[in-house]
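Exam revision sheet. Question 4 asks you to relate a sequence to its structure. Input first:
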Amino acid sequence: MGWMKGLLSLLIMSSAVVFYTNSDNTQAERDIQPIETILELVEYGEMALKEWQVLARDVQGTIESEKMFQEHVHKLRDQLEGWNQTYYDTSATEWTAEFQLTSEGGVTESIRLMAYPENGTHTLASTYKLVGTRATDWHTYKLEEQLQDRLLLFSMDTASLFTQVQGTQDALTNKNYSLLDQAHVYMEKLDAREVEALTEETFVSVSAYTTVWKDQLNTGDQTMNVQIALRSDKALGEGTTVTIGTPIITTEY
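Answer key, structure tokens:
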């Protein structure tokens, strides 16, 4: 999918740094508004919610040796009572550890540490993810407060924040409208203007910009902070999968 897939790979798997413009000093002080707005779009579009997620990523300095990384992971493990360590690997040039916690309500949290080689040392990056499958979870479990607390706990005050929601429309919903038309309806609800679009017979991806949200991603001479993807499988009658993310979608779509 062109530059969008390439950008996603850089964000999640490599040492690329993504710059955002934001008037606040720290991420933890921001109003975590986009998740609620996008969940409202799911209801507006009469979608069956599959999953929502909020992901925070931050670069946190350098790790000089594998031993220091082990010590860092051990210290974090002591802080995370009830969490399970689900992954640990220092056999390659990148060192990785991950912890996960699933609440009684089914909301899942994870924190992933990755130290990758850069300029003769290892740069440490942390990715925190909060995932749920019900729109009511956000308020029921006071997850905005929990997110703020976690960002402080993991020293991710300046983290870049990625929010996305995925749902499924019934095959009969909006059957008289093209996928691009449907994407434009969601853009209108977000007061967003199109920046770039990729259209295929059963797939559409639109990058857009809205002044409603403060964060924005600058890539080349383009500025964006919304991505909307629709994938249809009319042949199987399975309806349309809709994924909406800000500033970009962070999973395959």
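Marking note for examiners. Residues 1-29 have pLDDT under 50 and may be disordered.
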